[in-house]
Amino acid sequence: MTPTLVFDLETIPDIDGLRRLSGWGQDVPDAEVAERAFAARREEKGHDFLPLHLQRVAVISCTFRDDSGFRVRTLGKQGDSEAALIAGFFKTIERYTPTLVSWNGSGFDLPVLHYRGLIHGLQAPRYWDMGEEDRDFKFNNYISRYHQRHTDLMDLLAKYNGRANAPLDELAKLCGFPGKLGMDGSQVWPAWLAGKEDEIRAYCETDVVNTWLVYCRFRLMRGELDPHSYEAEVQLVRDTLTASSSAPHWQEYLAAWDAENSV
């Protein structure tokens, strides 16, 4: 079995970068730096979503499926630097060469990792290989849009038409899965300021599980899994989360899953 890694980022404003580009000094509190940047963005673009190169990676969560089973984890530990988190992600690719799966990874997560990895001077030769080192990568690599080493499930299901994109939360629920719990992306920065990194990590983990479950349903639709194999994959997720049910977010997730299937 080729290892499969589903990944998702949670980001916060790059306060140091905003200070450097704007000239705001250390006397301006972090929250005020962000608010000034949001206000400038709203005035310029009509929304406060910051450019991708100014999104600092706060959390990277993953599911990992291989012959050894199914795992969910958040890379690093609380307090690790952004560079350490990104380096850990690319080291996983270097070691396992997994199939990557994301929801909007081509539009957000991977470009953020590209910019932030560049800023920190990190290396990711396996990820960037397009056939220079491994001939197989010339025709199937992580970078080219229509290749299979990275599947942006949102982009693929929408037939590469942004107007047809569906929200992961809604699609997961329509498929009978729990969907988002606790927060959404717009609440990450306030939660970070409030010192709730553990809640952000938990939220990101539930998002990658949702993505993996929808991906399993997609594999069933395309015939890669038969109905029996599909049910076995879904049950493996439930069994894995049940074994980790001492964690409050997995208790909540499993309860929401049961509720979705009782409708």
State which percent range the strand residues make up: 5-15%
CATH topology: Nucleotidyltransferase, domain 5
Which CATH first-tier class would you pick? Alpha Beta
Total DSSP helices: 11
The mean pLDDT is: 95
Strand sequence of the main sheet, in spatial order?
Answer: 3-2-1-4-5
**What gyration radius follows from the Cα positions, in whole Å?**
19 Å
* Largest β-sheet summary: 5 strands, mixed
Order of helix and strand elements from N to C terminus: EHHEEHEHHEHHHHHH
Low-confidence stretches: none
Count up the domains: 1
Report, as a whole number of angstroms, the end-to-end distance: 35 Å
Number of strands: 5
Name the helicity range: 40-55%
Named at the architecture level, the CATH assignment is 2-Layer Sandwich
The coarse overall form would be globular
Structural class by secondary-structure content:
alpha/beta
The CATH homologous superfamily corresponds to Ribonuclease H-like superfamily/Ribonuclease H
Produce the secondary structure layout.
Blueprint (H helix, E strand, L loop, with lengths): L3 E10 L1 H8 L7 H16 L9 E12 L2 E6 L7 H15 L2 E4 L2 H16 L4 H4 L21 E3 H5 L10 H7 L13 H6 L3 H25 L5 H17 L4 H14 L2
Parallel strand pairs: 1-4, 4-5
Antiparallel strand pairs: 1-2, 2-3
